[in-house]
Write a structure and sequence with these properties.
The protein is mainly α. It is built from 5 helices and no strands. It is elongated, with a radius of gyration of 18 Å. It starts with a helix and ends in a 15-residue tail after the last helix.
Amino acid sequence: MKINDIFVRAARLIGISDEFYSENNAAELKERALSAINTSLYDLYEMPPAKSLSEQTEITDAADACVYGTAMFLSLAFGDTAKAGLFSKIYSDKRTSLKSRIDAIEDALPVTEG
């Protein structure tokens, strides 16, 4: 998945349409989006920051959470606190689900000598 895919999905969630790109310079938006994506990815995976939106990355199981995290941070950047609150709740739920997964079960019974 490309980092740009996360940006496009998050932009749609916060209400940025194709008309916005044709009427405005999207360079500042893309810079903010990259920062928001990097923040979300670091929070979920402790990934090093991406340098551009065109980078390819392996985040298949956390892509949804990253999209909502990015939408939350972009909403905050644009001052839309109502949407930021909604995306914050969704992001928090998805983040909790990812972070609370049990990867491996280990035997925890005490070992006796003998």
